[in-house]
Amino acid sequence: MKQDPLPSIAEKQTFVQGMFDRISPRYDVVNRLMTFGLDQGWRREVVRRLGLAPSQRVLDVACGTGDFLKLLRSSALEPTGVDLSFGMLKHNHSETSLVQGSALNLPFRDSSFSGITCGFAVRNFTELNVVFSEFARVLTSGGRVGILEVATPANPIIRAGHSVYFNHLVPLIGGLISDQTAYRYLPQSVEYLPPYEELQTMMANSGFYGFERTSVGLGAAQIIMATRS
Length: 229
Ligand SMILES: C[S@@+](CC[C@H](N)C(=O)[O-])C[C@H]1O[C@@H](n2cnc3c(N)ncnc32)[C@H](O)[C@@H]1O
What we know:
Helices cover 44% and strands 22% of the residues. The chain is α/β, with parallel strands linked by helices. The protein is globular and about 45 Å long. A 7-stranded mixed β-sheet has the order 3-2-1-4-5-7-6, sandwiched between helices. The chain is built from 9 helices and 7 strands, in the order H-H-H-E-H-E-H-E-E-H-E-H-H-H-E-E. The termini are far apart. Helix 7 packs antiparallel against helix 8. The model has no long low-confidence stretch (mean pLDDT 94). S-adenosylmethionine binds next to helix 1 and helix 4.
């Protein structure tokens, strides 16, 4: 499969915004196909693990087309979504409160949410230290964060199968249904994702504790939960 050079950090935010604007009309259908529909169960698990009471406010950072927002609302929570891409927001189907903005500079007051969810977006951000400080700033003390991200399976046999699927089949299917460049970028973007230990250190430095990491989808994805001090 052809490899494109990854955008530099300076170019990344503009590249990512343009890419999600382009793929937004077909984002949901490709996502369900790629994860065999398992992604919704993983999101549900993140919402459950937030452990929040009804009516508490939750910010879904990089909300995209709104899958997390819908689940949060159906759990009687009060969700708000923020995303960089106007295209993704236009195709958001959650009927919840939406704001265009960047995770690097969240357009919300300090301590305004009891929870944050963030699905499949961490590797798309630049300056993760800034993002995690922003998460901490907008959360109340004791607030919960739940991150869902791709991962590399630990088992070598599963890893080999997953590599063929993720590096070859996903770009092929995504290219046929949606946008070839974007779905070639998807597996490559994993290079931007720091190992869990590094993410944990960055989050701890921003004021989070009580980390729990769970592998899901045979190790193809991970859930990271933590609490704001
Ligand atoms: C792979 S999609 C995930 C969407 C959604 N969270 C989900 O679970 O399906 C990544 C999202 O991150 C958004 N994004 C990327 N960089 C961002 C940033 N700096 N601030 C806010 N959103 C960003 C993109 O626009 C896109 O909607």
